[in-house]
Amino acid sequence: MKTPRLTALTAATIAVAVLAACSGGTTAGDKGDTRTLTLASVDQGSVEDVVKAFEKANPGVKVRYTTSGADQYQQQIRTQLSSGTAPDVMSVWPGNGNPAATHVLAEPGYLRDLSDRPWAAKLPDAVKSIAQYDDKTYTALFGQNGIGAVYNEQALQKSGLTAPTTWTQLLKFCKDAAVKGTPAFALGNQDNWVTQIVLYALVATTVYGPERDFDTKMQAGKATFAESQWTTALDKYLTMEKTGCFQKNPLGTTYEASQQLAATGKTLGIVQGNWVIALLKPKNPKATYTLKPLPGVDDPTRTIVPAAAGAGYGINAKAKNEELALKFVDFVMSPKGMNLYAKKQGGLPTLPDTADPSLTELSTFIKDGRTVPFMDQLWPNTKVQQTMLSGLQEIFSDQSTPEKVLKAMDADYQAGD
Q1: DSSP SS3 for 318
Q2: Which of 132, 246, 292, 416 is deepest in the core (most CB within 10 A)?
Q3: What is the pLDDT of residue 352?
């Protein structure tokens, strides 16, 4: 997905995932300038510190970078790669399923093989598999992300309510919050990648709880979206909306506006990837944010969390400054680089290290094996996710139905690569 794409939530990476262009720069370096690196990133709010640290560690080096939201970035990067105007280093999502994912960009030869880098062999197997294409590593995945309910602890305390751990408690929590005049969760569905986040949080438990091999069954043609617990998860998503779990008019609310609602206590929290914590803190530095699982069933021991590597970085196969690009990617994958990202994004390094206290529960779920990858990371093509995203917006605007959307996703899935 987006982070994101949670390959995006993926926008979030993926998600992301993240906002509008913020830093000056171009997308192509000056040919022959060995001291200037060009970079395109979706890691707004975190890449800035990494760039500063890299420049400090390499006196005389200048990184010219741009940041943009996942939707905008994915539309642009493929065009830039095909026209020869892409930067030296760029955000790349793990696995498959969106226009800037590892498989999609590595297959036509747009990415440099990074298998020879010292960190490549150290990646955990689950991370390594989605950083690779045809058994070669193409993406430097520096952090793991999870999706859940991110609570504004001060707003939660003020409400007198307690974070729910069961589905029944969740619906009561939403009703009680609404009575108090403060909706439970902010939802920014005007940005279409955001529509998948709540659904993924519910799918993790309702689909993969009873069927951890669901993806294998899908790939073998023995399961479908429309005839599986995806229907239950989508029904629960809409039940949350009807119960008043979100603020009014989610379709008219942007991702950025939803952050403002959660940060300022206009809602008690937001259902998002952990990357949103880095964006909430500047909006209200006095608040404390904690990510907890979004319950989808009434037995807490059966709750599963979507957690996977978020967007990382790949190197343009035709980079104008390959040597400096490799140095930057190696820096990102160093303990210093990963810790900088983890601190700013509220994520967990892909190589073992300490975690932010706000992610204690996520860390526990990962260690206990109670996670599943972001759903789209294992889908065969980009169409499935795009159909889902547009379909979810149509459902929220009463222009489509869950049955139609899931059947359309099945059709795209079965079309293959």
Answers
A1: coil
A2: 246
A3: 57
